[in-house]
């Protein structure tokens, strides 16, 4: 009964957030250049690319269409790519955003993040940083396609973990090769003082389509959920004993998890794409989060459209998910909680969701009849 009431209250909250659709998180795909060659890259970035970095002034022209009165106090611009650290004007970008009264952060593979880079970015007002670590040395270097990337990434994590002025987390893409290493990775990150470890899995898009070993089986997914649940329960016990030296472990926002939903993340599943999150992509495309099929769900382009007007008047497929009642989702009893999973799980003709975490968490007999 308690769960039913809680689910109902959350659905009301989600409906109100959707109605208001306050924009507070804006991704900027500022480059598609990258210094690594990751097996799971959804955008298939390369060291040499035909896409030129978007000029800062172009992005700022789009950003400045947002009225100052509509910028919430927690508004954040997140630089992504590609690898943002390949740009030489990050300090200029940071200062320009801070002058506009908004926070900024970036997502990085960490390879170029040393103490000198850290100092420059902090001086420019860096407020949030995410670095990827995808296993212990052999597995991380294999995943990233570059021998030596593990040590460089570890050094970056050690620097960032000691900086209390930024919101810092490490993300790990769990696959069949690093799944047995989760405890060792956990202990390593905790020893470095990492405050939060965010875990996610892969969908078969981009390069990941060609690497089945990256994708967990249903039983392996269940194993991952149990690991996160156990870590969160241990953290809860530590927090009750007033111990502050623990690391928060959480599953990403990639889909509804049924029986694990309130055990592996702090807040119930909610795909904020197009509700609170938008993106400006490398060619000016306006979309939601960068992992979404940009051919299908593009909403406009900053070179011909007003970003703020697009946010206010478009994004209908994100705010009314009734279209997702198709394929395996058509008669699913969990649809009102899930709304067809994360938007990044719909690609191509969108006749079927690519990934359903809810089905993975069901007992096999129930799954077969679901």
Explain this structure to me?
The protein has 370 residues and is an alpha/beta fold. It has 14 helices and 10 strands. The protein has helices at 2-20, 56-63, 90-99, 115-123, 137-144, 149-161, 182-191, 218-240, 294-297, 307-313, 316-319, 335-338, 357-360, 364-369; strands at residues 25-29, 76-80, 103-108, 128-132, 167-173, 196-200, 248-251, 277-280, 285-287, 300-301. A 10-stranded mixed sheet has the order 7-6-5-4-3-2-1-8-9-10. Strand 1 (25-29), helix 2 (56-63) and strand 2 form a beta-alpha-beta unit. The longest helix is centred in the middle third of the chain and has 23 residues, at 218-240.
Overall 3D geometry?
Answer: globular
What is the overall number of helices?
14
What's the rounded overall pLDDT mean?
92
Q: Which radius of gyration do the C-alpha atoms yield?
A: 20 Å
Arrangement of strands in the largest sheet: 7-6-5-4-3-2-1-8-9-10
The overall strand count is 10
Percent range of helical residues: 25-40%
Largest sheet: 10 strands, mixed
| Termini gap | 23 Å
User: SS-based structural class?
Assistant: alpha/beta
Q: What is the string of helix and strand elements?
A: HEHEHEHEHHEHEHEEEHEHHHHH
Note poorly predicted spans. 44-48
The fraction of residues assigned to DSSP E strands is: 5-15%
